[in-house]
Each structure stands twice: as C-alpha cells, then as structure tokens.
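Q: What does the assembled structure look like for these inputs?
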Amino acid sequence: MTASFEDEVRFYDPGENWSGVECSACGADAEEWWGDAMDAPAADGFKDLNTKAPCCGGTVSLNDLRYIWPAAFGRFAVEARNPDIADTTEEQDLKIAECVGTPLRKIWARY
Ligand SMILES: [Zn+2]
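A:
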C-alpha cells in the first residue's frame, strides 16, 4: 500500500474501467460535455469544481457527477496495486476512513 499527497487537487480516474458519466442534476448522459467542462477547472488546479451543465442548465459539482465507475477529485490517495482480494468490505472501508480521518471514495482503477 502506498499513500500519496498532491500539491494540487487532481482527478482520480478509473483508467480502463471508465464507463461514462451522467449529470447529477437531471441524469442525462454527460460524456459529451464533461471533457470540455473539465478544461477550465483543470487549468486552475481544480479549485472550483462547480460547472453549469449544458443538458439542464443546473449548477453541478464535477465531483458529484454520476461516474458510472467511481472516480473522484482529491489531493490524497491510498493505493493498493494488484490487491489479492475481490473487494474490501464496507466495514474495512469505514475503518480506513476512520484511520485517515476523512471520508474516502473507493476507485477500482485498471491501467
Ligand atoms: Zn443535466
């Protein structure tokens, strides 16, 4: 297991597991505009993740969009490469978050 801190917020994507993204306000497929919506926040170190969704005009956080396969923004990650288990239990997830002292989002990434 490795833990890493980043100077700036980054996007943790699931790599080859990427399965698309939907608008959190209206549920429409957001894949078409998501890439463009990432550009401005990315250039600014993802300080502001709010964006106006072209599908419904709602203000949504890029972090709260419905990533079909989990993805997240953050500055801290705990990584386990090629874990020899199918998944962690909810209890283990809570324990890890408790140890770290902040809620965590689990991302199964494949590269
Ligand atoms: Zn929408």
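The pocket of zinc ion is lined by residues 23, 25-26, 28, 53, 55-56, 58 (CB under 6 Å).
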